[in-house]
Amino acid sequence: MRLLLPLAAVLALLCLVPQFVVAQGGADNGEDNDFAEFEDFDDDEFVMGETHQAGQQPPAPAQAGAEARQGIDPAKGQPKGAGGASPQDSEDFMEIDDDHADDDGIVEDEDSEFEHFQDEEEFEGFAGTIGEQDELREGEPTVGGKHAEPKLTIPKVPIHFRTHWDSYWMEMLMLAGLMAYFANYLVGNKKNSAIANQWLSIHRSLLEDNFALVGDDGKKETEGSTFSFNKESESVYTLWCSGRTCCEGMLVELKMIKRQDLVSLIAGIMKPVQDQLHIKVELSPDSMDNFVFCVASRKQATKMFKELNDLNKFCCLVSKAEDKYGVPGFAVLSEIAEVSSSVLDGRIVAALNKYSHLIDYIHLSDQYSGPIQQEDPNQLKRPEVKRILHCGFNVPVKGDLEEMKPLLILVFYLMDRVRRLKLSKEAKAKSDKNRAAVEEEFMKSTHQARAEAAAVRREEKRKAEKEKILAEEDPEKQRRWEKKEQKRQLKKQAPKMKQLSIKAL
């Protein structure tokens, strides 16, 4: 009996040694092999492949993942290490879990790949999620088990090009306006040209008798008696005449209504205007004494007094000129009373009364410089003045230009009358005094500007002299110039003293 107990213990030990050796060898192999973790998955795939070949259906991916997490063999449906796997496999699995306990193993589910389609915030403005779309499709009609295509509703869009002319009333109105404007341009331009040619044909002989050269514009040579107006614009025609005593030349300007412009014609209905003839004669310096005189309609006289420089500076309005000179409807602006009575003789007064509806103004001046200009502090000289005779006449409305021929004769009479007019000593003294006062006023207004200009000129002269001295290589000259400059500066800085002489008692 004592011998049997030790023998049984030896046999039991011999049975346990092989299992311990096998387990130890598997543990060593798991520690040395870095890819042991993936060998278990290969074994699982191999088992699944055998099961599939044997006619068994492989488990679903989701079910296989769940069983793997629970420790169940997907091929046998039993827990590993509890009859479904050998103890050796169980020990190998435990060893791998111990070695890789620090690694975070994440098993992805295939269903999570399409989870973003179930997110309502993923598709904004979409009809709904996949489930909602399926619910919507359940109510749609089906054909042969398939959803029927939705019906497309095409709205009725009106045709852009219509056949009715009343749809283009705005375009037709604009086209009619353009046609009316161009037609009026042709008719108005032709009418203005006809008026200019008619006036020239009536006064041609009178102009040729008084001037040696008619129609000279300085650009082309006139041959014989063939001359015409110079067309400045569709409504302005000019004619230059020269070659007569007591004048340097005469400019005839026919300024008519802008008949070629439909807009101007419409504006003329609200503010009527009239065709006018302006005659400007440049008198010779020795053919007129120093005076300024103007006779014009009341409205025109007020306008000219405000706009023209010579009338504003030298003339004043003559009171009761209608009764005094017998010119009803006219105002007189005169510098010297003697001139008014000399110019407005019987012949001139008769013409003013007979053609009062045609005569607009008559202006005589030896100080004509144009309209009043704004005061410019940099202007150091007075504007250039001329001796002129300006006459303005209205063209008859009915177009009877023969009535204007005596007015041109009146202009020639005024030229001769001014040449023969001589002022008395008192009138000349008053005239000279007025011009001296205007000159003094101008000098006072420009004194500051002239002083600044003179200082600039002196500084430039001194600078040029200094550069000239420094350019020379003579130190003696430079020394003398510097000494002279110092004396000048000291004298300039010294206070000014006034010397008074006292007589002894």
SSE order and pairing:
Elements: H1 4-32, H2 36-53, H3 61-70, H4 87-99, H5 130-138, E1 142-143, E2 146-147, H6 169-210, E3 213-214, E4 230-231, E5 236-242, E6 247-255, H7 262-270, E7 276-283, E8 292-297, H8 298-307, H9 309-314, E9 316-317, H10 321-325, E10 330-334, H11 337-343, H12 346-354, E11 359-368, E12 386-394, H13 405-420, H14 425-445, H15 447-471, H16 475-493
Antiparallel strand pairs: 1-2, 3-5, 4-5, 5-6, 6-7, 7-12, 8-10, 8-11, 9-10, 11-12
Rg is 60 Å
Element pattern in H and E: HHHHHEEHEEEEHEEHHEHEHHEEHHHH
Structural class from helices and strands? alpha+beta
**Number of DSSP E strands:** 12
Helix content: 40-55%
Task: Determine the strand fraction and express it as a percent band.
Answer: 5-15%
Number of H/I helices: 16
Largest sheet: 10 strands, antiparallel
- Unreliable spans are 26-32, 41-105
Q: Mean pLDDT, nearest integer?
A: 75
Cα shape = flat
Oligomer: single chain
Comma- or semicolon-separated keywords:
signal, ten-stranded antiparallel beta sheet, 13% strand, flat, alpha+beta
Structural features, described:
By secondary structure, the protein is of the alpha+beta class. It is 49% helix and 13% strand. The chain is built from 16 helices and 12 strands. The protein has helices spanning 4-32, 36-53, 61-70, 87-99, 130-138, 169-210, 262-270, 298-307, 309-314, 321-325, 337-343, 346-354, 405-420, 425-445, 447-471, 475-493, and strands at residues 142-143, 146-147, 213-214, 230-231, 236-242, 247-255, 276-283, 292-297, 316-317, 330-334, 359-368, 386-394. Strands 3, 4, 5, 6, 7, 8, 9, 10, 11 and 12 form a 10-stranded antiparallel beta sheet that branches. Strand 5 and strand 6 form a beta hairpin. It is flat. It starts with a helix and ends in a 12-residue tail after the last helix. Residues 89-106 have a biased composition (Acidic residues). Residues 1-23 form the signal peptide.
